[in-house]
Amino acid sequence: MSPVPASPGAPGELPEGVRYSEPSGGLRVVTEEVPSVRSVALGLWVRTGSRDEAPEEAGVSHFLEHLLFKGTERHSAIEISELFDGMGAATNAATSKESTHLHARFLDEHTDEAFQLLSEMLIAPSLPPDEVDSEREVVLEEIAMYEDEPQDRVHDVLARAVHGDHPLGRRVLGEASIIGSIPVPQIARYHRDRYTGPNIVVAAAGHLDHDAIVELAQVHVGAPAGDANRIPENGDGTVPAPRFLFQPKETEQYHICFGGEGIARADERRFALAVLDAIFGGSTSSRLFREVREKRGLAYAVGSYTEQYADTGMVAMYLGTRGDNVGEACEIIGRELGSLRDAGVTQEELDRAKEHVKGRMVLSLESTAARMTRIARSVLFDVPLLSLDEMLERIEQVTAEDVAALAAEFYDPEHLSAAGIGPEQERFRDASGSVSEALAAA
């Protein structure tokens, strides 16, 4: 898991309707024209997230995302919300482990004013101390709320089990002790160091003119001085051995995850992995959903998922079940993992999963917000920007042998870590032996 620097650059040959420019100072602009709509989805993306934080600033990326809404030199927090409401705009923001972004959807006639306001929030937040302190309490409440949601929290426990001390093992929300005390000058310095031209991508999709968006970016975003972000050299690049982690909590259900190392965001095998995930647990006809929920009624929520980052990834599976069902549920997971490895997948499963993945892909891209997100991520992380037809063809080309190779490499039970939240650690530890004997002994 070696650190990989962000490498800004042109995305190569572009699909029809997509245009790309580098106006100045490393700033990048990518748009997709959708003439059939009357709206624009605009996103201002920054290549910094929780994996870029030092341990003593864990959570500052997410906290700063909140503070972008709390005022600029020209507008207070209330005025910002009133201006967006006056445009009929839907606006929000998000922080992940590798990026932070502001986004808005609005009528095309409001493009200029929406762009100006959103960019002012991103580039020049005023960080007024009273607003920072009030929002500090909001984020602390968000962290507390999250602690009370074990079905969400367990995925962070799994990330820590899989990635160990690497920054990817830390949660995006950070730690309450740090959020409660981090001073405003330190937040401002983080903003100044990370929100720089080479780290920023302006992306838009909808009823727009690319050249006009580029001009707006030059005027309102400019090119804040600085170098391209570099992922900190945290960790020694090795993949931790499988771990068993458990968080005791008095809950009605045990919330259980198994997972391990996956593939990077640009890995060509991502299309085959999407098909494999749909077969194993990522759809309502998947093996886990069918065996755990439909046949035996052992869980309401059960499934699998994958995550991809710049240099690595994760495969994972989750279920929530009552204590009496933990043993049987883990036996089924272990059995299905063994079957996936030893018997592979049927042609019927493969064909159905391909159509499932293709359908989800096409349906998602009927949204201008999804189109904006897709082109932004591609440029931000230097992933080739494929056309819809090219992506569908990549899915269609997936073979049973491709799926079997991924299953053997990433779904081997002996390489999986375990994470759980519930009343009794030993109950889950004993049950996890049905998946991997090494976990029961960990």
Q: How are the SSEs ordered, and which strands pair?
A:
Blueprint: E1 18-21, E2 28-33, E3 39-46, H1 60-67, H2 77-86, E4 90-95, E5 100-107, H3 111-123, H4 129-147, H5 150-163, H6 176-179, H7 184-194, E6 200-206, H8 210-221, E7 244-248, E8 253-261, H9 270-280, H10 287-294, E9 302-308, E10 313-322, H11 326-343, H12 347-364, H13 368-380, H14 388-396, H15 400-410, E11 417-422, H16 425-432, H17 437-441
Parallel strand pairs: 2-6, 7-11
Antiparallel strand pairs: 1-2, 3-5, 3-6, 4-5, 8-10, 8-11, 9-10
Helix pairs in contact: 3-8, 9-12, 9-15, 10-11, 11-16, 12-14
Characterization of the model:
By secondary structure, this protein is α+β, with helices and mostly antiparallel strands. The chain has two domains: 18-221, Cytochrome Bc1 Complex, Chain A, domain 1; 244-441, Cytochrome Bc1 Complex, Chain A, domain 1, CATH 3.30.830. It has 17 helices and eleven strands. A six-stranded mixed sheet has the order 1-2-6-3-5-4, sandwiched between helices. It has a five-stranded mixed sheet with strand order 7-11-8-10-9, sandwiched between helices. Strand 9 and strand 10 form a beta hairpin.
